[in-house]
Amino acid sequence: MSNEIAPQSSNGTDVTDSLDEQAIALATAKAELKAEYKELAVQGLWKNNPGLVQLLGLCPLLAVTSTVTNALGLGLATLLVLVCSNVTVSAIRHWVPKEIRIPIFVLIIAAFVTCVQLLMNAFTYGIYQSLGIFLPLIVTNCAIIGRAEAYASKNPIKQSAFDGLMMGLGFAIILLLLGAIREILGQGTLFDGANLLFGEWASVLRIEVMQLDSQFLLAILPPGAFIAMGILIALKNAIDNHISAKKVVDTEKVIERVRVNFDS
Amino acid sequence: MTDKIDSEQGQSASDKSTQTVDLDNNDNTSAEGSNSSNSKADKSALTVAISKNTKILALFAIACTLAVSLVSELTKDRIKIQEQQQLLRTLHSIIEPSRYDNDIANDCIMVSAPALGSDNVKTAYIARKTGQVVAVAMTSTAPRGYNGNIDFIMAINIDGTVSGVRVLKHQETPGLGDKIEIKKNDWINSFTGKKILSDDDSRWAVSKDNGMFDQFTGATITPRAVVKGVKDTLNYFTKNKAMLLTRPNACSDIATKSIPPINEAANE
């Protein structure tokens, strides 16, 4: 993930000095588009990550991440819904009056979630059962309607699809990380029950990371999810601070800290 | 999925056409124009906007419903097969498939009794070999789990011994009480082959209560509830065996042709 941070400072588009005007215009347009895609990727995966920064969709995030398989199942389902809803919302953005856009977005998202739920029920029955109520609850994941409203309703289809993809990936990565942390600590395995998601061949994916005599309950139960999530957020902030600290070394910028004391 | 997007876009295109018709306020020939655009002056802009928005919203609702019902229609059979296979897998794990030769998933009776833990109607699947009843797989509920009801299915041989028990649904503590799942622990197999000797067989309890079943470290309530549930169900069956087995088949009508032969799922 850390390699996503580096390119954000080098958005330079002034390489086209020597070309004639038309080419310049074309090139800038291209560069702008490229910069926008890059920005979308950075936003979705890091700066504005739905899990770590926006803190949206915490309910499924915390509830189903007890194993990597569950996390992957929900991550993929959310990703699919997010891309589809972004594309649809973007495609119809000129025809939807702004007064009724929210009900229409909700309709579209609900329809996609129901379709995904039916498809998962039909083709990945095991994971459908272990995700339980959290699959239909994707409808209430604010990250999805948030993206529809904030980005897809104002931008062309391609960019919206890419935005959905990146936001979905950002969410899925956090789900996977949490799932991996909790599964290793709780059960000492990785990809336990992957056959539920991918079919029988995937049983070989199961990795016994360490042998635990008894399960580490805290990691499996919801409080463990909160704690792991907190640590992940702290880690992200620490990396961000580290980067910005590196940046200001030259400019000698002083960071002022305010500490609230009860006796002051 | 792509079908859905296409239909959505098609729908949007038609939205556009209705919208422009409404906005132009011309003499329109569209079938939907009756309530909005014929009289120009006396209709306020608000009414026009409301009716236009209502129509658009209704069109979207119809489009979404169509898309969902299409997917539902396409996946219906497959979901039914999946559920049936799941049921067969469970049944096969508690009754050896070689012991019966009937279509067990479609041979069942409905049972409702307080002894089975809850007021819900339970299903009991009947395994027969050449017409003779070999075993009965009863769904039942153990009411006093640590965290609510524990639903299980148990197969009882015709001689009253337990052929197998599987927990279907529970909310017990992960890591402690969830050892009643076969995935986590083989404790549930300790019922296999056991028999109830009298109405109040004191061996049917966890070892803490001087019974013959182990409890788990850190979880006694869960196994206690399961043992009690299994015991009650077994008692109920042995007492009402004659009455239960003469009931007519309640599942035969549900049978669909698309269900694969039983031995296909048997290699699980």
The H/E string of chain B reads HHEEEEEHH
Summing up helix and strand content along with how strands pair, one would put the structural category of chain A as: mainly alpha
Number of strands of chain A: 2
Beta-strand percentage of chain A?
under 5%
Largest interface: A-B, 35 and 34 residues
> What percent of residues of chain A adopt helix (DSSP H or I)?
55-70%
- Got a strand count of chain B? 5
Query: Runs of chain B with pLDDT <50, length 5+?
Result: 1-37, 254-268
Rounded mean pLDDT score of chain A: 81
Quaternary status: heterodimer
Apparent shape of chain A: globular
Provide the number of structural domains of chain B.
2
Largest sheet of chain A: 2 strands, antiparallel
Report low-confidence residues of chain A grouped into runs of 5 or more. Answer: 1-13
Helix content of chain B: 25-40%
Q: Round the mean pLDDT of chain B to the nearest integer and report it.
A: 77
Written description of the protein model:
The complex is a heterodimer of chains A (264) and B (268). Chain A has 264 residues and is an all-alpha fold. Chain A has one domain. Chain A is built from ten helices and two strands, in the order αααααααβαβαα. In chain A, helix 3 (68-91) crosses helix 4 (101-123), helix 3 runs parallel beside helix 6 (142-152) and helix 4 crosses helix 5 (125-131). Residues 1-13 of chain A have low confidence and may be disordered. In chain B, helix 1 runs antiparallel to helix 2. Chain B has helices at residues 2-24, 45-94, 221-245, 262-266, and strands spanning 108-111, 122-129, 132-145, 148-157, 162-169. Chain B has 268 residues and is of the alpha+beta class. A five-stranded antiparallel sheet of chain B has the order 1-2-3-4-5. Chain A binds chain B through residues 66, 80, 84, 87-88, 91-92, 94-97, 99-100, 103-104, 107-108, 110-112, 114-115, 118-119, 121-123, 125, 186, 214-217, 220-221, and chain B through 1, 4-5, 8-9, 12, 15-16, 19, 49, 52-53, 56-57, 60-61, 64-65, 67-68, 71-72, 75, 78-79, 82-83, 85-86, 173-176, 217.
